Amino acid sequence: MNRRKQAVFLTTVLGLSLALALNGCHPISRSVTKEAERNLSFAEIRENPDQYRGTVVVLGGTILTTNKRQDETVLEVRQMRLGGTLEPRDGDKTGGRFLAVFPGPLDPAEYTEGRRITVGGEIEGREWITSGEQEEAYPVIRAMDSRLWDSCGDGHYAYTFYRDYSGGVKSPYHKAHAYNYRCR
Known about the structure:
The protein has helices spanning about 1-25, 30-35, 40-45, and strands at about 55-70, 70-80, 95-105, 115-130, 135-150, 155-165, 175-180. By secondary structure, it is of the alpha+beta class.
């Protein structure tokens, strides 16, 4: 009987350890990835973001600019295809640009030009941006979750991820948490 209890205990501990380890491997929370529309291409979103207003998506790319507004931070992101781990793939191919809107301030020293980011959030519509003499519509994504990627040069990555625990509701009691993981 003692061996049986030990086997049950070890199985339980191993199962819980595996569940915790696998949960930590998701760059975007399960609730966001579960809700995200996977069959919607960036080209479709870019073509008519108002048609997909309220749809949750996961997009990624390279940060071009970080702008603080009154109660939020807006990242201009050059869209890139995502790999199997939802990490933006390196390369020159892009579908265009999008804006990722985060409630509250983000550290501009962390969210710098050239850093890769994966954002899970809700499509809010579009915003017109003037670049030189040309005006272009960018899809706007209200961030619910994100991961900031950075190459360490040795095949490992450091990242920061943002979780909005307020349920997307802005209030004086809004809580947002950023977690940082550094290169080994």
